[in-house]
Every structure is written in structure tokens, then in C-alpha cells.
């Protein structure tokens, strides 16, 4: 595949250009997605609404001070001061910039009917409220694309995944509606595709995975799905076999990297 070279935050911002403003209320546009985040949360998280027409962070979730060293009101500011990107580890920053740029170009190169089929996950280290770096997953869950083929606004969820043991962590992954996933990892200052076989899971297994990732234990899952304790345990055992994992923590980590839910 074509090499993707790391870029500075200035290079990323200059490549994005300023967007037209259609005067849409972005929070209203994303409100349904924002309200549903908790239903599909795989770990503790916060969200950010990026206003690309005014080049600023327009809104953040109420809990953001629990996960970052910055006050909630201080988040509402311009991209151009590099505030957001400087929260990431210096060794990860330029690679994440390149991954963000790649994702945007890839999405906008698709016809309208295909844009919603792609999902991107990015991985890196971000400062917590104590100014210590911990591993996070950055998930792009929504974009507002105007009639000039420009992304005016983006909704991003950032999950804390520091407590999961994740071997061979990719830089980012891309999944489409056919469930074919590509993984990209930077090696020697290049980003390379990683070929990984992802197991197929049933609808019931997916339901159980979602509940496991949301922190439910076996009795709670059985009650939630109106099935027996032993049925849940059998599904969990089958999932561990399919994913070659031994513990629930390893299973959740596998799920996150491979976009199984």
C-alpha cells in the first residue's frame, strides 16, 4: 500500500482548509448519536464536538475533567493553538495526525451512499487529569458533510483503554459494512497494513460482547437477555475460543481492536 508519512499538526490543519458554514446547529444534528453513546460504551469515555467551519472545539461532555488535565470551559477554543493534539504523547502525535488526514481523505473520496459504511478507530497515548499518559481509543462516530463535500463538524468519542492488555496495538483500523477490517501500524516511520483474520460472531454473541464490554457479569447478562447462566457461560467460552483469548479482559481488548461491536 501507499506509505503514509507522519505529519505535524500545522501540516494537518493546513491540509484541511477552512469550511463553509451552513449555519446548522451541530449539536442538534448529532444529538441522537450523543444520547446513544452510553448504550454502546466499551469503557469509560468522554466526547468532543469539533466545529470545522469555525476551527474550534464547540462542545464537550460534562465528565471531561475526570479524564483530562484541562477544565471544561478551557476546551472551548481554537484548533490553531494545537491544544487538542498536544494532549497526545509526542511520540504518537505526528502519526495520529497522518492517520486523521488519511481517514478524512478516504471518507471524502467515497460516493455519498458509501460514506457511512466506513468506521475508523485510532489508538494512542493521551494525558489524564494527573498529566500522566494512558492508552486511549479515539472513535469517529459522526460527521456533518456539506454540499461542497467538506466535513463541517465531527463527533469523536475517546475511550480509556489503559486497563486492557492489548498486544500488537495498531495505529488505527478501518472497518466497512461487509465487516472486512484493515489494520494499520507504524513500523520504522511508516504505516503498514496488518493482515489479521477476524472471526465471525453470531447475533447473540454480539449482544453478549456488548454487555461484557459495558461491564456486565454473567448473572447480569443472563437476566438482561432472559437466558440461563450456563448459556451465557457457553457463549463466553465459544467467544474465547474464536478469539484465542483466555480472560474477559483479553476478550474485550480483542473486541476493541477488531471492531467486533
From TrEMBL:
Name the domain of life.
Bacteria
Please name one Pfam family that this protein belongs to. Answer: GerE
Question: Which InterPro entries did the record assign?
Answer: PAS (IPR000014), PAS-like_dom_sf (IPR035965), Sig_transdc_resp-reg_C-effctor (IPR016032), Tscrpt_reg_LuxR_C (IPR000792), WH-like_DNA-bd_sf (IPR036388)
The UniProt record lists the HTH luxR-type domain at: 194-259
Q: Which CDD domains match?
A: LuxR_C_like, PAS
Would the keyword tRNA processing turn up in this protein's UniProt record? no
Q: What is this protein called?
A: LuxR family transcriptional regulator
Q: Which residues form the signal peptide?
A: none
Keywords, in A-Z order = DNA-binding, Transcription, Transcription regulation
Q: Which lineage do the record's taxonomy fields give for this organism?
A: Bacteria, Pseudomonadati, Bacteroidota, Flavobacteriia, Flavobacteriales
Organism (species): Chryseobacterium endalhagicum
Q: Which PROSITE patterns match?
A: HTH_LUXR_1 (PS00622), HTH_LUXR_2 (PS50043)
